[in-house]
Design goal:
single chain; 380 residues; mainly alpha; 0% strand
């Protein structure tokens, strides 16, 4: 969900991030026609796998140890500030606004989210925000961030281990690794969905294949598409159509992820794989428009903050409802996300003391977790 910076980004990828976060918000706001908007998370997973693997392969550090240190320091600088701010704001605002209606499990949920273990916590507790009539945790959506962080822990280590082999064989070995992860993940998702839908939804094993597909794409040549730009535009259009079809046809009654995650995931993959070689008026042109690119820039904070804006008014003893309420709440979330992006994310992301020193970044992360835990103890 988090990008790697303007210097290495593709504008169409930022636009795709915007589409992903907008369909997620529309789904959580229960807007008609977006019953399958939860697939925006799957689109994010493919993007993350693609961007992170591309970043790792571009790293020109003199040693793998230095490359690992740089990667983890950058991840902490990128992920922790906004997530910490959102968790603290959510639990404090919920206590002030909801009063006696403050969910008793929220403090525990927030602590797990701060540790990037929300998905494991919700698996163990059997939480499921698709259950009608049961209010979800205000940090349920942090499960996807946890899956991404678990992926980020593993992949750099794999890349580092492969560095001991012959240089020309490293990309091939990494492709085989990603392919194996995709196959295992697909089987796990298919089997688990029918036997334990909650575990299947939150499990890193059923989702890692989506991130691995993005990683595989980052290692796959695009030579053919560069020579056939018209066909690349057609492929990109098919990718957008696949995401749109999943958004409007999937619903809470759709067994998911199962094998059905392939529809939006392969759609996102087509866009990522062909985007650099499309004609000027293909999907890349549409995804690269400034409004979508900006929403893509703030999509991480927007994803984090939108859920509380939409859910807290519904959890009041007298729910805050009126015509246009979801619009007001979404615009408020966008404003908060923009503020977070410009005044928290970007300044700390660019701070050399944080992004260039692994010890300092680890200390910062530990302090952030401690602050979140202390806040939950104070308000609980």
């Amino acid at each position: 969900m988090a990008d790697e910076g303007a210097s290495t980004r593709r504008r169409d990828i930022q636009g795709l991030r915007a589409i992903a976060v907008l369909v997620v918000i529309a789904n959580h706001a229960h807007l008609s026609g977006f019953s399958g908007g939860f697939i925006g998370v799957d689109v994010f997973f493919v993007i993350s796998g693609f961007v992170i693997t591309s970043s790792l392969m571009r790293d020109r550090s003199t040693t793998r140890r230095r490359a690992l240190a740089r990667f983890y320091a950058h991840r902490i600088a990128r992920i922790v500030p906004a997530s910490t701010l959102t968790l603290i704001a959510t639990v404090v605002v919920a206590r002030l606004v909801l009063g006696a209606a403050f969910p008793p499990s929220l403090a525990s949920d927030v602590r797990w989210a701060a540790l990037f273990g929300a998905n494991l916590h919700f698996m163990a507790s059997g939480a499921n925000y698709f259950v009608q009539g049961l209010p979800p945790s205000l940090v349920t959506h942090f499960w996807s961030l946890s899956v991404e962080e678990q992926f980020y822990l593993v992949i750099p280590l794999v890349v580092s281990l492969l560095a001991f082999g012959p240089r020309r064989m490293r990309p091939h070995a990494l492709r085989l690794f990603f392919a194996a992860v995709i196959v295992v993940s697909l089987v796990v998702a298919w089997r688990l969905t029918s036997s334990n839908a909650v575990v299947a939804y939150y499990s890193p094993w059923s989702r890692m294949g989506e991130l691995a597909l993005g990683g595989l794409l980052a290692l796959t040549p695009t030579t053919w598409w560069s020579k056939h730009r018209g066909w690349s535009a057609v492929a990109g259009a098919l990718g957008l159509a696949a995401i749109g079809l999943a958004t409007i046809t999937f619903s809470t009654s759709t067994p998911f992820p199962s094998y059905r995650f392939l529809l939006p995931v392969l759609g996102a993959a087509l866009i990522l794989w062909t985007g650099e070689h499309q004609v000027s008026h293909g999907p890349t042109y549409l995804l690269s428009r400034d409004p979508l690119v900006y929403l893509g820039d703030i999509s991480y904070s927007l994803y984090l903050s939108h859920f509380a804006w939409l859910m807290i008014p519904q959890m009041l003893p007298t729910p805050w409802t009126f015509d246009g309420a979801p619009t007001v709440e979404t615009l408020s979330a966008i404003a908060m996300a923009a503020a977070s992006y410009h005044f928290v994310e970007q300044p700390l992301r660019r701070a050399s003391w944080l992004r260039d020193d692994l010890f300092s970044s680890l200390l910062f992360a530990a302090c952030a977790i401690a602050v979140v835990w202390n806040v939950t103890l104070l308000v609980h």
